User: Fold these one by one.
Assistant:
Number 1:
Amino acid sequence: MLADTADCLHPSGRWQRAPDDPRVDAALLLPALNGALPADDPRNTATLRAVTTQLTDDGYVYRYRPDNRPLGTAEGAFTLCGFLLAQATHRHNPTAAARWFERNRAACGPPGLFAEEYDVTQRQLRGNLPQAFVHAQLLHTSLHLATHR
């Protein structure tokens, strides 16, 4: 078990970005995906629920809300986080996981390359291109979904 996990536990029972930053962050799905804590730990389940309800729009996932503006105003959806959400959802709902995966897989450019971000409103790539971390997570998630049926 992680030492002093209460420092980053939100009052709602989900993980928060930092002791002094109560925002939800899709990157907080990673510890459960990498085995740091059991995936069915209530804190991870609450984080998954918070990411799904607070950081998604039209099938895409934003890493976090940088401020009080609507999602998509400050930055685009993070395609890497879309693949993380697909993998995190798979245990609870394989059909929903496949939907998250396919929606985010479709956010690539004509040569099949992914950028760091995707503009949900304008339906175009944003940020660094190509983004190796997104491609690696695409492969990792596709392997996970295919082998954990």
Note: Residues 109 and 125 are 7 Å apart (CA to CA).
Number 2:
Amino acid sequence: MRLRTLAEVIGHLGASGKTGIAGGAEIRVRRPAAGRKDRGRFISGRNKQNAVKTMVVMEGDGRMLFCSPTGPASCAGITHARQLGLVKFLADGPAVEIPADAGYQGLGAQTGGRVITPPHRKFKRNAPDWYEEIYERQRKAHSSRRIRVEHGIAHLKNWRVPTRHLGRREHMSHTVQAVAGLLSHQQTADLTSA
């Protein structure tokens, strides 16, 4: 089974009753040539390096379902998810729960609570001890639910090409999606043999 679009992924998760996990991955690329008008477009706000960004969706058992086409890393993760149509698919589609990281913080309200993000920190300074304990417990519980997607992104970057791409940025989307397909096939084979 190959899921090629985000709509197919949401439909599959809704039909199977499984939980999806979303995360973003940045892959370093070559710096655009001097004098190009979009030279600063690929600079990541997080890593301060030239990179492209992709969104990864995995099943709760750790199988990679979807890897989006790449976009410039200067674009925020939540904007990338909106451009891919995640809000529309979750609002109009089946009831699917998707834990995501803090980069997707506003999507929970737009999708009717289907995207679950880590809790907001209510106290910046001088937080009471009881609040710190509750906050840490909620943050760790959310992080333990999301650990599979972080491991999946790490496995994706274990392949040589996505570690640091030295070719043309225009071909990066096809390369990352091909590696994600191979990784998904490998994970499916490992799950069926176990």
Note: Helices lie at 6-16, 77-84, 86-92, 107-110, 129-158, 160-163, 172-193.
Number 3:
Amino acid sequence: MPHEARAVVALKKGAPVEVLPILVPDPGPGEVLVTVQACGVCHTDLHYRDGAVGDAFPYLLGHEAAGVVEAVGTGVTDLAPGDYVVLAWRAPCGQCRACRRARPWYCFASRNAARPMTLLGGGTELTAALGIGAFAEKTLVAAGQAVKVDPSARPEAAGLIGCGVMAGYGAAVHTGGVGSGDTVAVIGCGGVGNAAIAGASRAGARRVIAVDLDDGKLDAAERFGATDTVNSRGTDPIEAVRALTGGHGADVVIDAVGRPETYRQAFYMRDLAGTLVQVGVPEPDMRIELPLLDLFSRGGALKSSWYGDCLPSRDFPVLIDLFLSGKLDLERFISETITLDDIEPAFTKMQRGEVLRSVVVV
């Protein structure tokens, strides 16, 4: 029996989102029905609304969520109704070439629910953002997307593990391999960038340099573990980072913005043989050009970080435990709590850089 729910839908490219009634089917084999409790507003949701991810409209937005399992389909043995979960947009298939080579964090065939959610009346199928669609009272996902965590973590904080915090934290710890004594620079101090700062600090970096255009964001970055800050509005950030690192540049530079100009800054901000990690998501028409000789002579590694190269079943419970033990302050990421009806104003605040995370409480 389908379940009726209110949800945030992007009907067409660039148009304001609407809160509409949808139908969520009962879970089929390998699926779970989740009652959503909270969902963060991520920049990727705005990309979906604006058609920068694809054109499979209408989209059911939202993907950074925590909630409670309401029902499970056949074949689901590790989840039960009442389990408290954080939703993940990577659910390794176990069969693709990445999974078979013991690299499930690169899974090329991540699982999603097979049964579509639809608009009420007419049956128009919805494309769930990142296979989740959690700006809704209920959503349907593959069982592997629902990761059971400690229920004492409140959903407004726990849900942030599902995307932005995991992406930034993992960019430093997993993709960048930050270790004890490293120097690290992070460009862009929004939610993802500050999570990278927190991850680098926890991994033992000797110096963590936050780079941004906004003094308020730089102040926040210090609270997440930045040892130094650089406002790049009136300062050459490359020279500033070099000055803070003995003239050499940072061992690891994380671009949490994803623009050609920040990528170029990150490239030259590295020490020789240093690592550049891009975790900020660029828009489809962006291009970068660099001298081939510089690519050769500077050496090191240029990496893209997909979801912080995480394995949700392994990493989500660990980050929740760090939060509950006071070692990762997820509460500090929450700028405001809102309702499903407040998504458009939240997008505006995000674009203006006024919030780290708006969190929908359902």
Note: Residues 168-306 form a domain with the Rossmann fold fold (CATH 3.40.50.720).
Number 4:
Amino acid sequence: MVTATGVGSYPGEDMHEALRVVLGELPGDRHGLPHLPELPARGAVAGMTGRALAVVAELGADLQPAGWRLTGGGGGVDQRRARSLLAQDLDALEEQTQGWSGTFKLQVAGPWTLAATVERPRGDKVLADVGARRELAQALAEGLGEHVADVRRRLGGLERMVVQVDEPALAAVLAGQVPTASGFHRHRSVDLPEAAAALEWVLEAVGEQGAEPWVHSCAAGLPVGLLRGAGARGISVDLAQLTAAEHDAVAEMIESGATVALGVLPAVDPPVGPTDTQLTESVLRWLDMVGLDPAEVADRLVLTPACGMAGASPAWVRQALTLLRTAAGHLSG
């Protein structure tokens, strides 16, 4: 059966309310995959990078005017706030999932997106230093394993867990398109073997905790083959961003037995939203274009918004999740 889920971020600052929306619209039934929301409106400590730095093991970080920076020692007050906020959110999740059972999804920024956004202690991005980016990836892998184990303990009705590793910067890292601190130059591209190795550490840490690792990016140029080789058991993409070759690569991945989450709905309020029938027909057209039988791939197909919904209105969030879940039901026959 086809399922529906959110990508990660939502508007607002109230985690209890966000969880009520997610668990209400994606209740973990036959067509809904609930997940832990991210609420970046609460500040940098709750954004994608801050959230990941709350998870990493041993590495200290603090918040500077230019963004997050590793400290080379103990973490600063902002990293402690990020960790405290994550713990509070997990408490809220545990409270609201009493009596719940099913599959649940977590999200965390991946090693290359972190390397492209976090600075070294002496300045410029971690991406500029081979040793620093290796250390950051390994710290993320270690901390993520502990995080997954913690969530598993908290969710008494958990039957299956998915961990979505967000890599919106991966394509830019591989193409040498990430700007240096000055903005006048670009960081050198990362070789494919090194890129794969860092992802493997993180995805293996997820798998070692009995969870299913996915990789997500709503940016163009997601290297599907690299992700498959690194151990991704699912990918999440914006359907509108795919090139002809990428359509084929995504189709090959789902044929291989992996899960594919397709971003098929606007992440922000559209002038006129599609109906569930129109959404269903658009997915069927894509399946026909790539030569896939809906009945054969339904169990490995997930519908999502095109990207995170932090910029959407609360009303559109609810409507979008309802549309996705309804379309997933139609596609499941």
Note: Strands lie at 3-4, 61-64, 67-70, 102-109, 158-166, 212-217, 234-238, 259-265, 301-305.
